[in-house]
Amino acid sequence: MTKEGLFLVAVVGGVGAGKTTVCKIFEGLGLPVIYADEIARNTCKYKEIKEKLLGLFGEKIVSDGAIDRIKLGKLVFENKEERERMEAVVLPVIDAIIVGEVERWRREGVQIGILDIPLLEKSSLQKKVDEILFVEARDEDRLRRVVSSRGWSENDLLQREQAQTPLAQKRAIATRRIINTTSISPEELNEQCQDVLLEWRKLLN
After folding, report:
1. What's the pTM value of the predicted model, to 2 decimals?
2. Per-residue pLDDT tens for 43-55?
3. Phi (first) and psi of residue 32, to 5 degrees
4. Cα→Cα distances 132→16, 68, 72, 125, Å
5. Which of 66, 71, 134, 184: disulfide with 174, CB 3.0–4.6 Å?
6. Are 34 and 116 in contact (CB under 8 A)?
7. CB 6 within 8 A of CB 106
8. Half-sphere exposure of 42 toward its Cβ, with a 13 Å CA cutoff?
9. Could you tell me the CA-to-CA distances from 82 to 35, 62, 72, 94 in Å, in that order?
10. What is the dihedral of CA 154, 160, 164, 169, to 10 degrees?
């Protein structure tokens, strides 16, 4: 990255830490954001991807003629081999779409761009980001959030955590941190994001 180029930030953290909440704040502050989970949802609708997934897992992952991501998730997060088979189909497509969007940012002269990308370690962009921002939240806070917002059990959370890089490793590679425990108010979280954005802009000037 140069002062004239794109400053690319990946937001990482545990499941339920509030990564998307942080990204939405940055979006509200005028930064473009790529949400990998949204791309993943759309990818499952592509005819070619749908056919490949049906070939791997059969009709048990279908509801009303479409891939049911809840059924698919339950299947693959209970079985590492099944998850790896699914990822081999879906992740390259997701990665290509994200890379294409990042290149569009570069062409358009975007200064700072945000990636909300849970599986950064499996993306070709891992070594191309300029900053890795870790969203910190206590385990009990994260569990409370996913139980409330997603209806998950503690085991559901553990299965999804095990499918990602361990939190200790994510913290170790992070270059900056934002605290999002339940004791942090929305206003305080917003202030943290504003402070971080100010630091990024200083780096570019």
Report:
1. 0.89
2. 988 999 999 999 9
3. -75, 145
4. 18, 32, 29, 11
5. 134
6. yes
7. yes
8. 9
9. 24, 16, 10, 18
10. -10
Q: Which tens digit of pLDDT belongs to each residue from 169-203?
A: 899 999 999 999 999 999 999 999 999 999 999 99
DSSP 118: T
Count of C-beta atoms within a 10 Å radius of residue 77: 19
Closest alpha carbon to 29 in 180, 193, 178? 193
* Residue bearing tokens 């996913």: 146
Q: Which residue has the tokens 């994260």?
A: 142
Give residue 194's identity as a one-letter amino acid code: Q
pLDDT at 2: 44
Structure-block tokens of residue 59: 């009709």
φ, ψ for residue 64 (rounded to 5)? 55, 35
Can you say how many angstroms the Cα of residue 122 is from the centroid of all Cα atoms in its chain?
11
